[in-house]
Design brief:
The protein is α+β, with helices and mostly antiparallel strands.
Amino acid sequence: MSAQLVFSNKKLAVGLIAIAIIFVGYLALDMVSGSDVTVSATVSTSVSCNTDITETAFGTLSVSSITTATTDASTTMSCNYAAGCTLTIQDSGSGSNPGLWNSANSYLIASADATLAVGVEGYGIQVSAAPAGYGDTLTLSTTYDKTGNVVGGLLRTATTLASTDSPTSGRTAKVVHKASISGLTTAGTYADTITYGCTGN
């Protein structure tokens, strides 16, 4: 009787332990179950450029000197395109050819890649990069990245002045305008319009 009771108590103990193990396992499974939450967002692409002047002037050109315009044109560009952005320039010239145009006398001081010389007609620009801004730095066009009296010629179609390969903010390209004339350059008033634009790459 006593031995049988002890045996029964052992079976009860084993049963209780088994139930406890199953219950703990159930709780463990319940604790690790759950749901996933997906978080999403969109960032719109943007590009902007701003030129700090609307006009500049050479004053009176002289056959005995190479003249630099009184005010440089600085254009600041920002963008968040993964492949960066491009700053372009486009010249109006005579409407068919780039350069300084004397509409009254239908005469053009043509713009072309050149080393300007005293007494020889020529007109073009140079570009340099200012240190301000952050993000990717400007890669300047080799056509316009010149010094001294070497200039790049303007074009009637939009052409690259500077660019980046990744997002950038507040990077500035400064353009210097230079011109020279000869003794045969027709007298009169000359003008030109250069249009700056920027696009995402």
